[in-house]
Amino acid sequence: FEFAGCELLGSNGYAILPTKLDEASLSALKQDFLDIQGDKALVTSGQLAGRLYAHGAISALSTNYIEKFRPIAEAYFGSKKIRCDLTMYQKSWPKTDINDIPGGEFHEDDNKRNMKFFIYLTDVGNDNGPFCYVPKTHGLRKPEKYIRWLLWEIFHSREYLYSYRLDQKRCELEEVKVTGSAGTIFCADTTG
User: Whole-prediction pTM value?
Assistant: First the structure.
């Protein structure tokens, strides 16, 4: 994948890649999801609703994408010591309880530097579950981030990733809903 937007990623914390996946690649990913799911029902409640995941690569196909995205992560972090911590498929549907939203409420990821790559397998608009991000909140700019990291290290409780969460009252910036057609690829520094 060609990606000349590392400076945009560095300044905003997220970037949409100019390249989209073709229909054959989308079909292969959708089939990979079905193959991994097999005859198991997806979890329908809690933060794991609709998720299939693995520490490391979830499938041989995902390994191909990990390697394609690796140069972007290496350039962003300025390091060749990049590892894939997790891969996941997420099937989303309307939720009425905030506790059942996959991944939970708006939050910051843990205290290691994180970059997540996303590929939309279906069209995603403002009303059907787009990934949301507050630009320019990545990195270590605020003292409460150090406190959050320290509390996370001591207690390993996700509440510290939420209790210092970004909200519109504390942040002068607006959240961005990342929308796009099937095949849209984007990445984000989710240390937020």
Answer: 0.81
